[in-house]
Design a protein that fits this description.
Clc chloride channel, 3-stranded mixed beta sheet, 23 helices, 6 strands
Length: about 600
Amino acid sequence: MRLSATRLSRRLSHRLGFRRDWYLVIISVVIGLMMAVIATAFIAPLRWADQIGENLADNPLFWLLLLLAPAVGGLLVGLVRKMINAPAIGPGITTVIYSVRRKRGWLSMKVGIQQWINSSLTILSGGSAGAEGPIATIGGAIGSTGSRLLHGNSQATTTLLGCGAAAGISAVFNAPIAGIFFVMEILLRDFSLRTFTPIVISSVVAAAATQGILHDQAIFDIGLSFARNEGQFHISLLPLYLMLGVLCGIASIGFIRGLEFTTRFFESLNVPSIVKPAIGGLLLGMLGLGWMLSTGIDSIPNFYGNGYPIITDMLQPEQYENLETGKLLDGSGWLALFMLATLVLKLVGTCLTLGSGGAGGMFAPSLLMGASIGGAVGIGVDAMGWLPNGTPAQFALVGMAAVVAATTHAPLTAILIVYELTRSYEVIMPLMFAAIVSTLISRWLCRDSIYSAKLRAIGLHTGSMGDLTILRKLTVSDLAIQQAMTVGTNDSAATMLRLSERHGASDFAVTDDDAHYVGLVTSEDLKAALVYREAIPLLQVNELQRSNLPTLAMDESLDLVLEKFSRCDSDALAVLDVDDHSKILGLVTRSELMRRYQSALDRDE
């Protein structure tokens, strides 16, 4: 009876796509519960800061605090980064993507700890950044570390990393669906059932547990007045949302390029890296002080912190118009200019914060920039009489999704996260339309997203095809490596030809007098020599060898191997020892690479 139950369990897990990885379901529940507690601890100080920030304006030294707080926070960030010294490629999500693409899901726990501390310091001191990147990094590090402790394989490690990241997004934003698709669309790009199922479970558990702890609903409360025009969307409004999508796409390109520029600028500064975040913070503080002096507004500037309170205000219809008459309020033109100024300052402030080395996410700044564009456009449209039944607040909501979609090149995630943040179904159709338009504009004018730009700079191409995830999960060590037939660089070509006839070898690894690798003689080189067979006794190996061919390492992922093969016309490449680059371990052929890829496709690895 027990044997039958075991056999039934194995058969069921095999049909569901888990095979021996059924335990991932249980671990995903544990990760979801852990992330609910961690996310609560993570966001509690940020909420506390929002509450006390309003009371600081009465302090006579408020202007000094406004100027110096971001700089002090940046200095602390630099000190923490120096002390922890975690292996990070860039902002949190970029590092997570790199770990998935190049390190088979290995993400050090030090990265998560450093992100937790530094992002809290950045946001609490007024730095312009969000919470989604750090919490996804923290969750990813927990999932990756848990898999390594359980001796999981690379597939399990990547899946549990995704579980932790999805659970973190789900818990912080109270958006389980968005958390799932954030991971599937941006981090993993793998929608296979064996990966999807644990991530769904982890995300749902995290959201439910967090709601039980905090009793929260949507982050942005839009109020009942927002939905008074339910069902009023009409095809005649599509040109307006098309215009909004185009504007959001252009703004997102400015954000991406601006962040690239500031990152390069701070990297080129000839100052210790520990003080660069402080310099960025000081520039942000000067921007905030200038804003206060020019506007006379004695409060925390809109472009400080994550901007959630400002976004909530922008989503309230009563901020724009009289709810009884439906007419715009007096001074709406100044409000539109105020929103456009918020857009520019938030973009500049975020670039200064993150480009200088501050820690934090890019979703929150993108949401505020999108709400600013949408609100300003909505006011203009309403003033022209083109919005008889709607409200500019709806344009603000649509703008949020459009900018997030364009900056991340992930429209599905943007649509879902904005929908879940507001729980407003009334504008789902224009929201989807504008998000797609802005993404198309962004991809047309800028091939990199806010995340992939840094990765491309270090030679990692994320690609857009789902099948690439298979190659990224496999390394050279998963291939059948041929034993290398070696010849000396000073040997005669006739000796090499005899070895070829005796052993059937067509590719030869060439070594110097110290048995160090110096190049390859490929099958094509050998065939070319045989055309002039009478000259072979006069030739030496060093006249045929090719020293400019790329080499491979055992831990390189197969998508990188495929890229190296595409850059040369050789049918084989040498595999060298990771520690001793002159030691030959064997040869990898194109045919073996494609055989392993096809085998992985057949088994849905």
